[in-house]
Amino acid sequence: MTPPYIRIVADIKRRVAEGELKPGDKVPSTRGLARDWNVALATAAKALTLLAQEGVITSEPRVGSTVAGGPARDRTPTPSDLTRERIVRIAIEIADAEGLAALSMRGIAAKTGAATMSLYRHVGGKEDLVRLMADAAYGEFDYPLPLPEGWRARFELSARGLWALYRRHPWLPHVTALTRPLIVPNLMRHAEYALASLDGYGLDALTRQNIHVLVYNYVQGVAVHLEREAQQDAATGMGDDEWMDAQGPGLAALEASGAYPHFAAVVAGLGDDYDLDLDAFFEFGLTPLLNGLATLIEPST
């Protein structure tokens, strides 16, 4: 079966070829395509990116996507228009919609209307760009003042703040490994906040560091599934409910085999009500994690 984004691309090309969409005309937005074709936002964004890469459309800030070849405007940014900040912003928009795998210097150039090589005057390459993107994204969350009292309230604030960032930017938890942390100022700011929250409890340096890493890893570990969920939606064209319905026969066979009685009993107990909602799962795990840490941080209470 032809992937949904390819069908969208083919339809836009047909409309352009037949004159229904003329040079300079606006094409449907990501949300418009998602609504009209009943697909995920990531799928619609992937179609628009491919159209831009093939030169069918161009995209401009505050204008949107239009059919290429319109006579009304010069689409080549001036040197003052093409800045590191603008490149990073566009790269984040692409990654938010399609994931890091879809990010390329060529795709960013298509979005800006600039030559690909001109981007390298502002960033050192994709690796450098991803580092700048991560720093910008981690900088979007500011800890409100005054800070809450006590380590637990502060860790709850930090964990939920990071979760909100990962929700907004599903690619973000994938850019750094736990054993090879990304050294950027705004991620270091989150570490500084967490370590400061443990000050005054008589903990040694190793214990404070391990607690900080444990909570950070919990949030990151759940959040890595956000982008995978979006990627699977785009690749299959099916939402979670549709996908689970398709797995029904296989699950029923496993239950009926008798080899997995505990699994079968749990599935029977859940019925059709269980939905692995990542937001709810994150909250479910955060409370017992902090309860366990309380016995280490405040053993006498």
TrEMBL record:
DNA-binding region: 104-123
Residues of the HTH tetR-type domain: 81-141
Biological processes, Gene Ontology terms: negative regulation of DNA-templated transcription
SUPFAM superfamilies per record: Homeodomain-like (SSF46689), Tetracyclin repressor-like, C-terminal domain (SSF48498), Winged helix' DNA-binding domain (SSF46785)
UniProt domain HTH gntR-type: residue ranges: 2-70
Database matches in InterPro entries: Homeodomain-like_sf, HTH-type_TetR-like_transc_reg, HTH_TetR, Repressor_TetR_C, Tet_transcr_reg_TetR-rel_C_sf, Tscrpt_reg_HTH_GntR, WH-like_DNA-bd_sf, WH_DNA-bd_sf
Name of the protein: DNA-binding transcriptional regulator YhcF (GntR family)
Species assigned in the record: Nonomuraea endophytica
